[in-house]
Amino acid sequence: MEFDLIARHFTRATPGAVLGVGDDCALLAPTPGMQLAISSDMLLEGRHFSPQDSPAGLGHKSLAVNLSDLAAMGATPRWATLSIALPEADDAWLTAFARGLFRMADLHGIELVGGDTTRGPLTISITVMGEVPPGQALRRDGARAGDDIWVSGVLGSAAMALAYRQGRVSMEQADAAKVLPALYLPMPQVELGIALRGIAHSAIDISDGLLGDLGHILGRSNMGATLEFAALPTLPVMQTYLHETVARNSVLAGGDDYELCFTAPPSRRDAVLAAAADVDVAVTRIGRIQAEPGLTVLDADGQALTLDQTGYDHFAAQS
Ligand code: ADP
Ligand code: MG
Predict the structure, then answer these.
(1) Ligand 1, from 21, 58, 112: best to mutate by most atoms within 8 Å of Cβ?
(2) What does the DSSP 8-state code read for residue 305?
(3) Using an 8 Å Cβ cutoff, are 159 and 216 in contact?
(4) Which of 128, 177, 273, 306 is the most buried (most CB within 10 A)?
(5) CB distance 22 to ligand 1 below 6 Å
(6) Residues within 5 A (CB) of ion ligand 2
(7) Distance between CA atoms of 239 and 235, rounded to whole angstroms?
(8) How many CA atoms are closer than 13 Å to the CA of 159, on its beta-carbon side?
(9) Residue 51 binned pLDDT confidence (cut-offs 50, 70, 90)
(10) What is the pTM of this model?
């Protein structure tokens, strides 16, 4: 049964591997001289997705969140493995899940080379492998005093969509329709990560909210930072709701953005903008790295927002 299921749903040609699905191990031949970047992410029903979510969307998102880690490292995606626990072998569900997964895989040239399948509460664990030239990975510990802080895309849409879905905020239906894709169909910034090799000093993908994830760069780099709230990029529709704490929280501390936050010296501003334009991604300068520890967010008048005003603590306690 299981072998059939794997053959039917998860076995595809893998020209980029020596040996793909079907043996005791996959065999991979990394490009000589490149370093391997490896990352795993697990998605649990009830915690990362709900039983009503579409299986195709789930396939998309499961791989997208893993690809986002490769993006944040500046790595070129190569291979993935999928470990999945399923309550039952539902053929229609698996077909849709695999369709979403392989569509995302094809977008970024990553090949599924193995995994494990077992019966149990729906759990999806993916490991991705990518390649990066030695010394060029975008690490969290490379931020330097004076660096600009940048983010790609827009922030807060997915968290706002989740708040809407959970009834924690009310939105016009037409407005909600604008933020919902960010929650269900995140697009990892793989090309941008690669384009930033040799330009960015440090990078992270924003999966747990801007403040927390930028905090990881600051911690690993032993630096502090000042951000300007008014500079944070959002969808135009978010402006309507920014007087509400939920919306401000979504922008500053919401999860599931899967955008890149990175730092680069002011002397490389043009290089950053050219790299981003090359891959057709909007990037916005949102603040500055400093040697003094701490993370300050300034409002439009240059006043520091307190944690209370950002609701950051409150939000963190909820998630
Ligand atoms: P083993 O008992 O040796 O671990 P399995 O029966 O678990 O073998 O897996 C058989 C083959 O199918 C292996 O090559 C494994 O990597 C692959 N495989 C199993 N589950 C999946 C999956 N969900 N996606 C992709 N490949 C899988
Ligand atoms: Mg196995």
Answers:
(1) 21
(2) P
(3) no
(4) 128
(5) yes
(6) 116
(7) 7
(8) 30
(9) confident
(10) 0.94
Closest ligand 1 atom to residue 2 Cα is 6
DSSP code of residue 136: -
Ligand 1, pocket-test mutation among 4, 116, 124, most atoms within 8 A of CB = 116
Q: Are 37 and 70 in contact (CB under 8 A)?
A: yes
Q: What is the secondary structure of 165-189 as a DSSP string? A: HTTSS---HHHHHHHHHHHHS----
**What is the rounded CA–CA span in Å between residue 137 and residue 60?**
25
Q: Is 308 in the pocket of ligand 1 (CB under 6 A)?
A: no
Cα–Cα dist 218/263, whole Å: 11
Mutation pick for ligand 1 pocket among 6, 12, 24 (CB with most ligand atoms within 8 Å): 6
pLDDT tens readout for residues 170-216: 999 999 999 999 999 999 999 999 999 999 999 999 999 999 999 99
Does residue 24 line the site of ligand 1, with CB under 6 A? yes
- Going by CA atoms, what residue is nearest to atom 11 of ligand 1? 22
- Structure tokens, 146: 């004076």
- 68: closest CA among 208, 222, 223, 254? 208
> What percent of the chain lies above the pLDDT cut of 70?
96
Q: Inform me whether the pLDDT recorded for 158 exceeds 90.
A: yes
**Bridge partners, residue 79, by sequence:** 111, 129
84 Cα nearest atom in ligand 1: 23
CA–CA separation, 86 and 2 (whole Å): 11
pLDDT in tens, 144-157: 999 999 999 999 99
Q: What is the dihedral of CA 49, 55, 61, 67, to 10 degrees?
A: 130
Separation of CA 288 and ligand 1 centre (Å) = 47
Question: Using a 6 Å cutoff on CB, does residue 116 contact ligand 1?
Answer: yes
Q: Report CA(115)–ligand 2 centroid distance (Å).
A: 7
